[in-house]
Amino acid sequence: MSNTKETGLFETGSTSSENEKQSISDNEIAESLDQQNILTQYSEEDVMSMGRNYAIKHGLDPDLFAKGAAIARNPIGYNRMEFLSQEEKEILYQEEHQKWKLPKKLYYLIIMASMGACVQGMDESVINGANLTYPAGLGIGSDSERDSWLQGLVNSAPYICCGLISCWMTDAWNARLGRKWTIFWTCFISAITCFWQGFCNTWYHLFIARFMLGFGIGPKSATIPVYAAECVPHKIRGALVMMWQMWTAFGIMLGYVFSLAFHKVPDHGIGGGGLAWRLMLGSAMLPAIVVCLQVWSCPESPRWLMGKERHAEAYESLKVLRNHPVQAARDTFYQNVLLMEENSYTSMGFFGKLKEMVVVRRNRNGAMGAGIVMFMQQFCGINVIAYYSSSIFVESGFTETSALLASWGFGMINWLFALPAVFTIDLAGRRTLLLITFPLMSMMLLLAGFSFWIPEENEKARVGVVSLGIYLFAAIYSSGEGPVPFTYSAECAPLYIRDVVMSFATATCWFFNSVLALTWPSLKNAFKVQGAFGFYAAWNIVGFFLVLMFLPETKGLTLEELDDVFDVPTWQHASYQLKKMWINIQRNIIRKDVEPMPPLYKHHRMALTNAQWEEKHEVELVENV
User: Where is this region: Disordered (predicted)?
Assistant: First the structure.
């Protein structure tokens, strides 16, 4: 890590003075509030001088950036800064106490980016309805082992492409095109390939078209969460970045709607299984077209622009994403300081970044956490239901139309129950949501799977319990393992390797997605639905312990302030969490009087100091503002 005092940014043109000694209490306050804030080692006067130098260097407003630098140094001490206007103090107070009052442009950006997730969701679920007719139409509809594998191969084609090729192109695409234009071109590819799927007449032609669809899914899924994470304020980053998963769930639900709409479309003389499944697969192009039309008016990621040394453009981008220019100046200046601190301006090739991801402990731990949550997003079993729920419901006793309606219900629940996570992901935290939901998902999969043993003469009971298990599983998934993986992966790495880590994370997600789609028909034939669901129920228990031991919490910290969290050695983190679990069991279940363990991270150890200071000055802040 570089020494920030030696960089040109910190040539303040002043030396320590009596003024600095007089403000020592202010320094102590700032340091107690945020030990991760590297600006607290300087006086307010020196930091403001840094802000002016930075602004002059990049053709920006020196006075505005002097204010922004002072606020960055002491974020909640703005009320004592006499150089701030009353309007600026009110804006900063509003930011602290009304965190959802954000510019319309920021919400527009999040909605646009999330519509890209809708594209992915529809791509995943329209194949569900198509599975009822296209296999027989293309000659792979029997129960033979060959046809089961071929159906799985066709269904998994986009995700094979993502896992092996397209996700690894993300770094190159983003470096050349930027975040928003990567989103544009990947959605364009998705629209073209969805249209193409409707004209396939052999299983291998459909495989090729769906494989090419992977070039639209992979880089898009790696870019959109990062784009959102780099644009939103850190206090609500989790809630806004998880819009990716929420709108993926909406796209899944929308895919079921189109499957229902086109299910009974007549063949009209078209061979290869008729017209219905072609319209289903082609309908996924609609949200992709919407994104292509919207993305033009969105700003580029400010952090990406700063990584390209385009600081004035980064400030202009932040100015439309924040409520006031002083907030944009603060964030621009502080992001630059932190990016310099973590060496994110260093020019490095793809393989150099890949090496850094592996050999640097902070980066390796972040990538491992992202890999765990992405792997478990697939092996929790959710996409088995997303791809094959119609077939599963038919096997449990539904008619085809009823199975499609039941699948639509699954999609609706998957979408609606993402809403609670919007309000809990930044309060309870990513890790807590996972630890609560993994055991519950395991129970619901066992409930759904074991219900297939209910005798056929009790068909209504079997259908009801199977549906209950699947619906409860979807609701629990959407509140935990659904929103966390892409949010976590987008925030766990420093900027200079963020695209590579996100490529690794999404490649992990899509590779194991392809494994699920490829193996489910054969797994179900070999072990029946009961055994197949039991297999994924066991993986949910494995996921609980992987999260417990290896997944640090990321809530509430800026992207660049996570170094302390991810630099803890893996063995130390795992040992601490296992001991803490045992102590919690003794305290809360056995009711034994055991001393709690001290916090593991520095920012947790400072929490009491922070709370005491904030309580002391709360009345003063409210009255003066």
Answer: 1-30
**Boundary (domain end) residue, out of 539, 561, 583:** 561
Q: The tokens of 554 are what? A: 């990321």
Length of the chain: 625
- For the chain, helix, strand, coil in percent to 5 are 80, 0, 20
Are 556 and 613 within one domain?
no
Find out whether 218 and 165 touch, Cβ atoms under 8 Å: yes
Mean pLDDT of 120-126: 82
Residues 381 and 396 reside in one and the same domain: yes
User: Which tens digits make up the pLDDT trace of 425-466?
Assistant: 777 888 889 999 999 999 999 998 898 888 877 878 888 888
Residues 589-617 have pLDDT tens digits of 888 888 877 877 664 544 444 444 445 44
Residues 66 and 188 in one domain: no
Residue 115 identity (one-letter amino acid):
M
| pLDDT, position 343 | 61
Whether residue 187 sits in one domain with residue 56: no
438: domain CATH number?
Answer: 1.20.1250.20
Whole-prediction pTM value? 0.73
Question: For residues 171 and 502, what is the distance between their CA atoms, to the nearest angstrom?
Answer: 9
Reading the block at residue 558, the tokens are 């800026």
pLDDT in tens, 150-197: 988 998 899 899 989 999 998 889 888 999 999 999 999 999 999 999
d(CA 161, CA 512): 12
- 147-163 burial code (b ≥16 CB/10 A, e <16): bbebbbbbbbbbbbbbb
| Structural domain boundaries, residue 75 | 4-97
Q: Of 117, 223, 129, 232, give the one whose Cα is nearest residue 170.
A: 223
- Please indicate, yes or no, whether residues 228 and 86 belong to a single structural domain of this protein: no
CB-based burial label for 253 (10 Å; 0-12, 13-18, 19+): buried
Residue 279 shares a structural domain with residue 374: yes
> Which residue type, as a one-letter code, is found at position 303?
R
What secondary structure does DSSP assign to 504-545, as a single string?
A: HHHHHHHHHHHHHHHHHHHHHHHHHHHHHHHHHHHHHHHHHH
Same domain, 265 and 164: yes
The answer on 170 and 54 residing in a single domain is no
Which of residues 71, 97, 123 is at a domain's end? 97
Amino acid letter, residue 248: T
Residue 218 contacts residue 167 (beta carbons within 8 Å): yes
580 burial type by CB count under 10 A (0-12 exposed, 13-18 middle, 19+ buried): middle
Do residues 365 and 567 make contact, with C-beta atoms less than 8 angstroms apart?
Answer: yes
